[in-house]
Amino acid sequence: MKTIIIAEAGVNHNGDLDNAFKLVDVAVEAGADYVKFQTFKTELCISKSAEKADYQKQTTDNAESQFDMVKKLELSHSDHEKLIAYCKQKGIHFFSTAFDLESMQYLKDLGLDIVKIPSGEITNLPMLRLASKLFSRVIMSTGMANMQEIKDAVKVFTDAGIDKSNITILHCNTEYPTPMKDVNLKAMLHIKNELGTAIGYSDHTLGIEIPVAAVAMGASVIEKHFTLDKNMEGPDHRASLEPHELKAMVSAIRNVELALSGDGIKKPSESELKNINIARKSIVAFKSIKKGEILTENNITVKRPGDGISPMKWDEVIGTRAVKDFEEDELIIR
Among 7, 82, 247, 265, who pairs with 32 as Cys (CB 3.0-4.6 Å)? Predict the structure, then answer.
């Protein structure tokens, strides 16, 4: 099964449509399935007294409020329409996360058929209810959430008639970047066992190894932030992948998918069959042996190649008589 890879551009365009176009190009070049942005009206989702997170204080002007920081990162309706057209032209799916009710309705009006619930909205009942009303497919991140909160959110979806087969829950940690010791990747499997939904992973660690590991553990969706340059000003750039890293992550995930595509039965693969006789060994003459001589541990041994009598037959060969003269290293026959 192919993993859905969501390249999370987020707000790494810094409010500049040209940067957003460049991010789409990077996602296409990397081979991602979706490129995802964020849709919001700052006045509808952030109060002017809201504080910045610690990581935001470290990556932006500390004297600037969260409201003022986020306001500069909005994409207009016109920007959205141009981005959707550009994504269609480039052959990649446009996706976005809404952070307020009006923006969620707008994404539906744009024709999106699936909604992404970000970690911060998992306890936002009005948002969950509207998502359930507008969309039949849901992807939800679970950063900062405990299992009961996840169950409560999923119940809102299922009570509204969304089938569990159309719900994907992403394990996530909302710290940028996430310390490796806090990833707790096994929690993704806990979610699957508790809820019976498809699972995935939204990653905020540095590097690509954790999302690749998540795919090996069964993630059906991977979401990862990326940027044009980690040194750009803005809250999320430092915890994002640069273009070459995003491409490497996609390639690694596709390789893991190939490695998992077998039938699970242990047997020689088609590619290694030709190496069996080269790598395995046979019973051979350790030294010259005359016809009729008894074969013992002193005159036979085991060497490559493996196209003679298997060393697993050693006990059957010991004590028998040579059927012909053998030269040193010659395969023993019976």
Answer: 7
DSSP H or E segment with residue 154: helix 147-159
Beta-carbon contacts of 74 under 8 Å, excluding residues fewer than 6 positions away, are: 15, 40, 41, 42
Last residue of a domain, one of 259, 287, 308: 259
d(C-alpha 119, C-alpha 217), whole Å:
21
Determine which helix (DSSP H) or strand (DSSP E) holds 10, and give its type and residue range.
strand 4-10
Q: How far apart are CA 234 and CA 124, in angstroms?
A: 26
Q: List the one residue out of 208, 154, 172 whose CA is nearest residue 32.
A: 208
pLDDT of residue 64: 84
Give the residue among 138, 25, 137, 135 at the shortest CA–CA distance from 83. Answer: 25
- Please give the Cα distance from 289 to 200 (Å, whole number): 65
Task: Please give the structure tokens belonging to residue 196.
Answer: 């019976």
Q: Distance between CA 219 and CA 199 in Å, rounded?
A: 5
- The dihedral built from the CA positions of residue 261, 262, 264 and 269, taken in this order, carries a sign that is negative
Same-domain check for residues 300 and 240: no
Give the rounded distance of the alpha carbon of 106 from its chain centre.
Answer: 29
Tokens of 111: 């024709």
Tokens of 171: 């394990």
At 58-79, the pLDDT tens digits run 888 777 889 988 999 999 999 9
In this structure, the answer to whether residues 240 and 311 fall within a common structural domain is no
In this predicted structure, the answer to whether residue 129 has a pLDDT above a threshold of 90 is yes
Q: What is the CATH number of the domain that holds 37?
A: 3.20.20.70
Torsion sign across C-alpha atoms 124, 125, 131, 136: positive
Count of all residues that appear for the chain in the document: 334
- Helix, strand, coil distribution of the chain in percent, nearest 5: 40, 15, 40
Q: End-to-end CA distance of the chain, in Å? A: 50
